[in-house]
Amino acid sequence: MDTLRKLLQQPSSHTSCFVYRRRPLGGSEGNEMGGTEMKPDQPEPDEDLEAEPNSDITALVVQQPQHRRKTVIYLFLCSLLIFTTAFLLGYVAFRGSCHYCGEVGEMVPVEDKPGIDHYPTAGMYPGELRDMLKKYLQDEKIEATIRRVSRTTHPSGSSEGTALAAEILEMFKDLHMDHTWTDSHYATLQFPSRTQRNSLWIVDAEGEEMLEEIPLEDPDSYCAYSAIGTATGGLVYVNYGRQEDFDWLRSAGVSVIGCVVMMRVGGGVSYAEKVLFAQKAGAGGALIYPDPADIPQDPRRLGLNSYTAISEHVHLGSGDPFTPGFPSFNHTQFPPTQSSGLPVIPVQPISANVASKLLSQLSGLACPRGWQGRLPYVRCVLGPGFSSGDGRKVRMGVYNIMKPTLLNNIFSSLEGRIEPDQYIIMGAQRDAWGPGAVKSGVGTAVLLELARTFSHMVKNGFFPRRSLLFVSWDAGDFGNVGATEWLEGYLSMLHLKAVAYFSLDQAVMGDDNLSAFTSPLLADLVESTIKLVEHPRHAGQSIYSQAEREGGQWKSIKSLYLNSGAYSFTAFGGVPAMELRFTEESRVYPFINTPLDTIGRLQEVLGGRLGVVGRSLAELVGLMVLRLAHDHILPLQITSYSQSALHFSTQLNKYSAELQARGLSPQWVFSARGDYSRAAKTLKEDILNSDIQDETMIRIYNTRIMRVEYYFLSQYVSVVETPFRHVLHGRGEHTLSALSEHLSLLTSDPRSFNEARFRRQLALFTWTLQGAANALSGDVWNIDNVF
């Protein structure tokens, strides 16, 4: 028996036995995925044994028949070990390539959970990471930070703003992240003059004698980037100042040329767009006021009082308007230029009281249905004359000053362990003209809480695949200047590195309704995540299930808009971006950009549940960031733009007869749309059928996915003259919206249709779409588009 034992210990040229042991998840560096580890059973040295070179178990059994039974047992045990080991290896390999394996063993089709990755990171599965995120988020810290940020006004360039920046920098440093730094710019901002206040007068018919001064009850309110100077003329009420409002006035024979126009806040258009439409109609100046019909005035402090005006910038763009397309670094000399989005007429915000005093003196045509606001003692008439009948006019004076201002964006980051050069970015503006509880406090608080939470997760075993970047932006009130200047400075590299951007600005204004202003590439990610987050008002119900209980599915996906903190990232930088917002369904939060935007009023609107709602928003963003930072394949819906192109193709079909009569063919667009749809579908299928353990292939796929948004930036327009180059979300002649609007003239106003202009627009859009299709196809030898 001793001889048999010694013979079995020596190496064999035919048979090897293995022993195996389980290694816990999150084990050593060599086996960080956990599972079964196999090692050959190493023989103990025995100097007394001289084995024959070709001896084996079979020979041994033949030579020693008396031990046949025990030898068979050994053979059986070795075979069983080999079979078990092979089975375990096959199971692990199957789990590594299976696209249909659920998180707890059930079979779940991949379509039900698109992009979800079931591989553990440092011993943690997605469910464990979600639980860890929820565990570390603290609503008390969110509320405390909002209180701290909004304790005083802190506009960009002020001593209060500088002190707050220093505080936030120290908060980031205390988290001991991988990197913390500042990025500085010099930008030209506009502020109210301290020596000559903006003014409003009623003057005589010649505009020389001042008859009555109309005091501006809120003297610190102003419209940043308004034109400087005075405007004198009749006063015309133009409802919301939308294009359709000016069109109606023109059809009714009411001219606004040379007049001062008065507009209500709201109507779905920004201050900058209102001013643009007024300029195009020939107005000489503009006054903007909050009407009680749109912004409630409530004695319980939940509404705006009648003597407060709402400030806002009026630059039809973002960033420093005096360096369009260029970063505002102080060591760079730029040619003298300015943004075409700067207004050429003076603009001033006024209170409801001031608006009521002026409108109550007007005469002229009665307002059409739907234009009547709720100003007290006002009979809605249009002007431009006054009821006194003596030809009096309005004179407004705007004397704001331009000032070069040092901006400081504050950054902190956690490096990814596998793809550190790919960034998921979260940001919020830091400055505010008032206390800014909603305007800057909420976003800053959620940003810091997410940074603290992810930092703690990393210290407790979470290894993000990609890097996380947390940013506090300066000069957001002036049109996202800090964020846009950073984008302009690093545009040449960000489209290769930025996975997605999450704007946290104005994230909490209520607790009833959630809206997502987003790039279509991120829409599916939102809809899958809201099923995992509890509704802040309805315990035990997710945001999604609560929407279903109220009579339908959650459908609050909206397009990015110009003043959004996310807009520049997509329309200018080609980075998928999103801005989430909790609001009240029945009323708007009326205090933004006023001295009334305090934490006390926000708590009243939320019934004292500010921390709870802020935590729900932070959890929602955090879970989406977690997916983007953890999954092998980025969960971006690359086929979403196929629908936009298909919708436009349908429009073209409606005008096929008119186009053919002019010798124009839509076939170019149809071919490009088909090529893009096929390329997106093929890439999606390739990903589903690939081995996601192949890091080289994963890197190639993710690079193609990340650049989809960038592909839709038109390469045929100047970034200086047309900074928002995105053909679907941008602004300008190259965009799909401009092309569709021009196309509609074929039936509505054929004489205004410009064939040469339309050909150029169609070519720009078509070749941008075709370029996106070619790039999405991958390598040049994979492009089989027939165009």
Structure description:
- With 787 residues, the chain is α/β, with parallel strands linked by helices.
- The chain has four domains: 2-97, no CATH class; 127-185 and 406-630, Zn peptidases (Aminopeptidase); 193-399, Glucose Oxidase, domain 1; 640-782, Transferrin receptor-like, dimerisation domain (Transcription Elongation Factor S-II, Chain A).
- 37% of the residues lie in helices and 15% in strands.
- It contains 24 helices and 18 strands.
- The strands form four sheets. An eight-stranded mixed β-sheet has the order 3-12-14-13-15-18-16-17, sandwiched between helices. A four-stranded antiparallel β-sheet has the order 5-4-11-6, with no helix packed on it. A four-stranded parallel β-sheet has the order 7-8-9-10, with helices on both faces.
- The longest helix has 30 residues, at 68-97.
- The relative contact order is 0.10.
- It is found in: Cell membrane.
- Residues 22-51 are annotated as: Disordered.
